[in-house]
Amino acid sequence: MGDIDMTGSGAGNPGTPTFDQLRVFLTVVDVGSFAGAARRLGRATSVISYSITNLEAQLGVSLFDRGTTKKPRLTEAGRAVLSEARSIANGMGSLRAKVRGLARGLEAEVHLALDVMLPAWRVVDALKAFREAFPTVTLRLYVDALGAVTQMVLNRTATVGVSGPLDVEIDGIERIGVGFVDLVPVAAPGHPLAAGRNAPGAGRDHVQLVLTDRSTLTQGWEFAVIGTRTWRLADLGSKHMLLKEGIGWGNMPLPMIQDDLDAGRLVRLDMPDCKGGPYRLQAVHRTDTPPGPAASYLISRFEAQASEE
User: Is the whole-model pTM more than 0.70?
Assistant: First the structure.
């Protein structure tokens, strides 16, 4: 391919590329070759090459270094343009998704994924209000822990979710804060850690019951795990049962075990290095699939609950 004349609409006054040109550019980058982009887009390789040439002429910069390798390699300018091109493509995808939602109107079905730590009263309140507001909309409910909720939204199993904290940006996911739930360390009254104030590190000498994330989003992370002897459980109900039986100690959501504390079935532990704390909750949905009226109502309800706590 020959050189490009940058004296026209380029360097001094870049033109306006078409969305199709940007789509071709992104496809070449993603696939790694002009021929591969041609196959993916169902076009001739010469058409792909011509589109890139026109895009470079419009912008007044060379996007690919074609001379040093067989495969097109991004130039410094190409790398800078890539970020903006992706933003434009994502914005266009979001716009089209919103228009589709407006055209379709009310959803026929909403798939909702909830973190197991979400207090029961909040779940019941939201679903009762949802049933009254949208009696014709079918609801499918999933309950899981930590990153598994966000994973269900990512893979489109769920339309919207209420997830625990994921302190990392995840491409394609929007988050809305919906409050928190307090986690507290507890054990059965006969457990050695329940006798009174514990020295720092005392928890390491006893089995800690830990809730396991079944997704890969938090692989390698540890949440409030200080015990060197741990039992990993995939179900919060099983953890609750084992705690009451004195098999170990662990953190639990306060609303779930308040009755046990009041009745003396569990004891809140005095551990200077594991005091518990707020477990942040976030409503999540895909950026390319904005929630429709019914799913948006659920998010708003969870937001309103948080402001009442």
Answer: no
